[in-house]
Specification:
Layout: H1 4-20, H2 24-40, H3 42-49, H4 55-66, H5 72-84, H6 90-105, E1 107-114, H7 120-134, E2 137-144, E3 151-156, E4 159-164, H8 165-178
Parallel strand pairs: 1-2
Antiparallel strand pairs: 1-3, 3-4
Length: about 180
């Protein structure tokens, strides 16, 4: 597992540069695309991680690929990661950077799991209630899971609100098993 402290430090440094240059949205978009490219093409990551490849060759390749595709700030950042041998942290740095962007914009992410598809009216009511509850803008990722039978599970930051039928049945089962019968 990667050292998340290192990733947080690099993400914070990149965020500070982006904030000072008013390029937070641009760098956010670019680092997401870069992470996606890295995730999809294992050869790219393997090349950048390979100890037998000289740093100069890695830098030359990255410059050839990304000079016209990335902002100068992000390109310099990527080259710094290569020079410091931290390019293997790119995915985690991108995730940490996105957390900083969401915090900066007053956004929080919620995951909502239901047994059935929700219509747009219910989604809007749910978003409004979560925004009133948190005082922040809420970005919701929806998931359908038939195993919860009915109801809803909301994961909001570090809180889980489980109002699913499956949870109620599990709690009832535990309570019934705890009852001593003589």
């Amino acid at each position: 597992m990667k050292d998340t402290h290192v990733s947080r430090c690099y993400a914070q440094a990149l965020f500070n540069v982006a904030l000072s240059r008013s390029t937070v949205d641009i760098i956010s978009s670019e680092i997401t695309q870069l992470k996606s490219f890295n995730d999809k093409d294992a050869r790219f990551g393997n090349f950048l991680d390979a100890p037998q490849v000289l740093t100069e060759h890695k830098i030359a390749m990255v410059k050839a690929l990304f000079t016209t595709r990335l902002s100068p700030s992000l390109l310099s950042f990527l080259l710094l990661l290569i020079e410091k041998g931290r390019v293997d942290h790119l995915g985690e740095i991108a995730r940490e950077f996105e957390k900083l962007v969401r915090t900066h914009k007053g956004l929080i992410r919620a995951r909502v799991t239901t047994a059935v598809f929700l219509d747009e009216v219910y989604k809007k009511r749910l978003r409004d209630r979560l925004e009133n509850l948190t005082g922040k803008k809420v970005e919701i990722l929806y998931k359908i899971d038939h195993s919860i039978i009915g109801g809803i599970i909301v994961q909001l930051e570090h809180k889980v609100i489980d109002r699913s039928v499956r949870n109620v049945l599990d709690n009832l089962r535990h309570e019934l098993l705890a009852v001593k019968v003589y």
